Amino acid sequence: MSDTNKLLDLQHARKSFGDNEVLKDISLTVEKGEVLAIIGPSGGGKSTLLRCCTLLETLDGGSLSFGDCVVTTDQGGVAVYGGKDVLKRARTHFGLVFQNFNLFPHYTVMKNLTDAPVSVQKVPKAEAEAKAKQLIGKMGLEGKENMVPCELSGGQQQRVAIARALMLDPDILFFDEPTSALDPELTKGVLRVIRDLAEENMTMVIVTHEMKFARDVADHVIFMDGGVIVEQGLAVDVIDNPQHNRTKAFLLSED
Predict the structure, then answer these.
(1) Domain extent listing, the chain
(2) Cβ of 215: how many Cβ atoms within 10 Å?
(3) What is the pTM (predicted TM-score) of this model?
């Protein structure tokens, strides 16, 4: 594919917290329409990687771009970030869904969805509400518009969070363990929504511990452990036929 289809380009990413080097020279790209799943044990660096990609943490070294928006360049091994305007533009390229939903607790479902478009992007309220209604329907949440998060199940809250991320028309959606706070029954509904998005060619990066889901839905899988990419490739190859002993051991432990 040409570079015009490259929605995310991360090269030689490094990140430490004190003496703890959490990301050690991580490079990955995500093409338009691709679903990338990131798997691996806890503490392997997966969430930190996602937080660096979504500007919640800053890289120590490496380069990060969203399409033609260059967020950081690597200068002598140090990640140098663009100015406020660059970071603001970068944030329009992606949406992020957290494991703990991060909804505004006192806002209704409708206000959770329309608040950012109306107040930040200055979208007319009626236009934002029309779009929100469409997404509420798509998420199977009809009739819940005026409820606040505590009146919803965890699965419903996560579907609101996905709808909220979609309200801003991101090029790419990041998910950080989107089902880890849910019981198995609620997990199914959220995974079904993500599966539907994949079928619509939504570009996604998903940190997940759901191996069957990763194999079925992702195009590519990265296995991370100890801050490095141990193995990567087509989802079906990595999960059904891993080559590296660390990957094999991890997948056996997840069965």
Answers:
(1) 102-169
(2) 18
(3) 0.93
